[in-house]
């Protein structure tokens, strides 16, 4: 499997199509955590996000057409599945209620700082829960996954200028929800 680590996703996909199981394992290892993370940010449910990852990977395994951009394909499928499930289950009002709990732990030196940190996390989680799953998906790609506008445009199959304007709009709505405008 070490030799396959240096191959691109597309090369691995082709090798897998030719029967190389280690190529598939390499792809799965590369993206499984990322897919769960993206799905979680949209649904707010760990179990649901793991199920979404499983669904997307099964679709990938069953794909009979050539996947030219594996990373974009997997990310787009994850976004679509997570958004659809969030809409179907009416989770918009509760999604990401635990966001503050999933944030990285900061080294705070006093109980007052910890309280302030917790309050900010709660406020941010509440504001994010008021956004649509599509809006949370866009924020996740840009800020959690640190994708460039070009990469997001590839994933969403939209022009880069559209991605930029949509992200600007979502950030403005989030700021308004946080009382920053």
Walk me through the structure.
Residues 91-105 have low confidence and may be disordered. Helix 3 (46-62) crosses helix 4 (70-88) and helix 4 (70-88) packs across helix 8. The chain has 9 helices and no strands. The protein has helices at 9-17, 21-43, 46-62, 70-88, 99-102, 111-129, 133-144, 149-156, 160-177. The protein has 181 residues and is mainly alpha-helical. Helices cover 71% and strands 0% of the residues. It has one domain (3-177): Butyryl-CoA Dehydrogenase, subunit A, domain 3.
Give the count of helical stretches.
Answer: 9
SS-based structural class?
A: mainly alpha
**Gyration radius over CA:** 18 Å
Question: What fold name stands as the CATH topology?
Answer: Butyryl-CoA Dehydrogenase, subunit A, domain 3
Low-confidence stretches: 91-105
End-to-end C-alpha gap: 51 Å
User: Regarding CATH, which class?
Assistant: Mainly Alpha
Shape descriptor: elongated
The largest β sheet comes out as: none
β-strand percent reads under 5%
């Amino acid at each position: 499997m070490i030799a396959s680590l240096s191959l691109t996703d597309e090369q691995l996909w082709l090798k897998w199509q030719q029967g190389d199981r280690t190529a598939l394992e390499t792809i799965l290892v590369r993206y499984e955590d990322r897919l769960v993370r993206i799905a979680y940010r949209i649904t707010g449910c760990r179990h649901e996000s793991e199920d979404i990852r499983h669904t997307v990977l099964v679709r990938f395994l069953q794909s009979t057409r050539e996947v030219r951009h594996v990373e974009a394909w997997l990310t787009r499928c994850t976004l679509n599945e997570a958004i659809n499930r969030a809409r179907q289950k009416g989770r918009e009002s509760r999604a990401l209620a635990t966001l503050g709990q999933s944030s990285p732990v900061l080294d705070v030196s006093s109980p007052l700082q910890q309280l302030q940190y917790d309050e900010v996390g709660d406020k941010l989680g509440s504001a994010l829960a008021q956004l649509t799953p599509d809006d949370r998906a866009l924020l996740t790609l840009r800020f959690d996954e640190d994708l460039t506008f070009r990469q997001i445009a590839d994933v969403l199959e939209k022009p880069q200028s559209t991605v930029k304007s949509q992200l600007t709009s979502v950030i403005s709505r989030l700021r308004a929800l946080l009382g920053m405008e």
